[in-house]
Structure to design on (153 residues):
């Protein structure tokens, strides 16, 4: 199992950065290897990803979500992974976005990708691409979901 942590300072306010991250269906626009994300309800997501020649589909559950602070998730099936994205206000127009993930690769291709650092580089690239994506939009998010999902007991 691998743990990946990556942070980036984005030149938008914390509300805008958080709002954009809640637009899960836009992830393929800035995440390499993410073919599709469908949100079925406030807590459930269906992912289609591609690593090399391998396409995987899996479901994930949002386990905690607090506007302008954090979004945490875990996989329900498929490759085991979990993580949290946190949002820290640096000033009125700058936010630190930090992604922390643990991944237990499933299958030969994913294990090779993990051991050779490909998955780590992909996450780092995705975080950098998020910065480019939101800043290129002039600080305008594509939508927002401001609901709160408390941490399970």
């Amino acid at each position: 199992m691998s743990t990946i942590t990556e942070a980036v300072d984005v030149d938008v306010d914390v509300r805008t950065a958080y709002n954009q991250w809640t637009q899960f269906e836009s992830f393929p626009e800035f995440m390499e290897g993410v073919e599709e994300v469908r949100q079925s309800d406030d807590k459930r997501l269906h992912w289609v990803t591609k690593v090399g020649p391998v396409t995987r589909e899996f479901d994930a559950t949002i386990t905690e979500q607090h506007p302008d602070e954090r979004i945490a998730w875990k996989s329900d099936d498929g490759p085991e992974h979990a993580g949290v994205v946190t949002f820290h206000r640096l000033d009125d127009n700058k936010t630190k976005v930090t992604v922390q993930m643990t991944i237990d690769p499933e299958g030969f291709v994913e294990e090779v990708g993990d051991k050779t650092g490909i998955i780590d580089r992909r996450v780092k690239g995705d975080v950098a691409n998020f910065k480019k994506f939101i800043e290129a939009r002039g600080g305008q998010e594509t939508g927002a979901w401001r609901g709160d999902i408390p941490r399970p007991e």
